[in-house]
Amino acid sequence: MPATGQTPDTEPTGDGTTAAAAAPSRRRRPGVALAVRLAVVAGVLVVAGAGVWFVTSASAPQASPTTTDIPALSVRAADVRPGSVAPVSARAAGGADPGTSPQSARPSGGDPLDGWAKQVAAVTGIPARALRAYGNAELAMRSADAGCRISWATLAGIGRIESNHGQYGGAVLGADGRPSKPIIGVPLDGSAGVRAITDTDGGRYDGDPVADRAVGPMQFIPSTWAKWAADGNGDHRGDPQQIDDAAFGAARYLCAGGRDMASPSGWWSGVLSYNNSTEYAQKVFGLADEYAKSAQRAQAG
């Protein structure tokens, strides 16, 4: 299960802040390996406004077993004070022209981000297919909400922590943007270190008719996906396992409430609403900052 330290429901507000969470942040205790594994499993538990734009879909997956291979455990938290600064701004989706349309607006033809993704993949270790999804989500939000200014690098930082860019548990991200096997977290059944979230989807997305589980490369709770589902690849479907859809859905959530994700206050508010853990946000910061700098160096060289 991808590591998230997921917090309970938060509500985006118009000024870019979030309402108080219903539970405190994680604290380390003896038996840290097990505690962390259980405490960080809940995925993207985000709620609040915004209806679904289209009919969502997903094949009914089999609920996966719990594993100890947690992507976030190997990520170092950046030594940065929350709210003090935002990660360096990457050249927007590879320097794509502001008029470049996202995949969902291009029913046919090549992907203008393909060359950029291959170049940046070589210096960041992010799969080119995942980079195309993150860059496309930036383009989509640039079109839908230009004031948000979300960067592909922030989405990549979250994607690394949540599922190692769709590669969690040995999965391989396919050309169609779907992992070779569904990415499904542990049951949120109220056991030690895990919030109790009873089933909301009849097992449609997570294969579990009893308790919800976080699903897909960006680790959405099924009920959250129902609110923030997005069509990132233009197939008129929203699938949390498909990385274009998942990245666009995550971008929509992060931009909620008029946030400016390029400002320090907006960036920290958005990421902490995705997961109300300072350590989590510091890890995303470190990843996003380094991804952006690496991309800048590659493009400059």
Overview of the structural elements:
The chain has 301 residues and is an all-alpha fold. It has helices spanning 32-39, 114-124, 128-144, 152-163, 222-228, 243-254, 264-274, 278-300. Helix 3 (128-144) packs across helix 6. The longest helix has 23 residues, at 278-300. It comes from Amycolatopsis ultiminotia.
Short description:
This protein has 301 residues and is mainly alpha-helical. The protein has eight helices and no strands.
Largest sheet: number of strands, sense, barrel closure: none
DSSP strand count: 0
Radius of gyration: 17 Å
Q: Give the topology string: H per helix, E per strand.
A: HHHHHHHH
Coarse morphology: globular
Task: Summarize model confidence as the mean pLDDT.
Answer: 78
Distance between the termini: 38 Å
* Structural class by sheet pairing and helices: mainly alpha
Number of helices: 8
Percent of residues in helical segments? 25-40%
Low-confidence stretches: 1-60, 63-69
In what range is the share of β-strand residues? under 5%
Biased composition (Low complexity): 1-24
Organism: Amycolatopsis ultiminotia
Transmembrane segments: 34-55
Domain Transglycosylase SLT: 214-258
